[in-house]
Amino acid sequence: MRFLIIIILLNTIGCTRFFYKDIREESPELYKENITPDPKIKVLGFYPFKVVDYQRGLRKNKIIAELDYDNSLKEEFLYYDKENSISKNPKKQKLDFEYATRFINGYLNFVGKSGIKEIETIINLENKQFYLINKNYDYYILGIFGPDFKRRKIDDFKGTFTKIFCFLTLGIIPAIEEFDIEGSFYLFDKNLKLVSSMYYPQTYKTITSLWMWPNEGFYTFFNSHDVIPKGAYKDLVQRINIDFENLKNLKKQKASPDLEKK
C-alpha cells in the first residue's frame, strides 16, 4: 500500500525540466562553394515537432507527432525576412519534374505528411505540372530537425542512475540526462536543384527536479514521449548562421543524409 501511494504521488507531482547548452561535436569538413553575394533566400522548414495524439493500448501505446508550425525557428536565421517571405504578386514558373519530386519526397520522408503545408508555400501542382511560386529568390534553404521524439544517448549511464535516484526521492535529487539531436540544412538554387547540404549531429542535456526553475515547461516522471524542446535547436541555427556569414566556406559532412536519395 505504501509503495502504491508513492507511485501515485510520482505520477501527480510535476517536475521541472531545464535544458542547457548543447555539447558540440567536431566541425564538419570545409569546402568551397560559389554562392551569389548577398543572396535572396527563401527559408523553409526549421520546425520542431509536437505530440498531437497519444493512444493507450493493452499491448503498446501509439504516439503521433507532427511539425509544430507555431514554434518555428526561422526567425533565428539571419537571412530570414518575414516581410518578403510572402510576395504580393506571386509568379509561377515551371519546375523540372525530377527536381520537384526529389525535393518533395525527400522532405516528406523526413518529417511526414505534416510537411505538405510547408511545401505548398512554394510549389503548386496544376495539370500534372509542378510550378514554383514566388520565383524571386536566388536560393531556397530547407532546415530539418530531428528526431521527432527524444532519443537518449546509448552510453548515457549517468542519466540512467540519476533518474533512478530522482524517482526514489520524489524529484529532490535531480536527474541529468543527455539526448541526441540533429539538424540538416539543404541549399537549393532558384530551380530547386540541390547545391549543397550541411549536417550537424550533437547532444543536449536536461536537468529534471522538483525544485528546478523551468525554461521549457513542467513534466511528470511518466512523460516518456516528450519531444525535443525548441530551445535545444537554437544552437544549430546559430551554427548555420556562422556558415552563411562566411559564404565561401560552407560546411559539409560526408555522412549527411542525402535528400536526393530519399
Strand residues, percent? 25-35%
For this structure, the quaternary state is single chain
Mean pLDDT: 70
- Count of discrete structural domains: 1
Instruction: Give the helix proportion (percent range).
Output: 10-25%
Q: Helix count, per DSSP?
A: 5
The helix/strand class is: alpha+beta
Biggest sheet, spatial arrangement of strands: 3-9-10-11-1-12
Q: Main β-sheet: number of strands, strand sense, barrel status?
A: 6 strands, mixed
Structure commentary:
With 262 residues, the protein is an alpha+beta fold. The chain is 21% helix and 34% strand. It has one domain (12-257). The strands form four sheets. A six-stranded mixed beta sheet has the order 3-9-10-11-1-12, with helices on both faces. Strands 6-8-7 form a three-stranded antiparallel beta sheet, with no helix packed on it. A hairpin with a 4-residue loop joins β10 (175-189) and β11 (194-209).
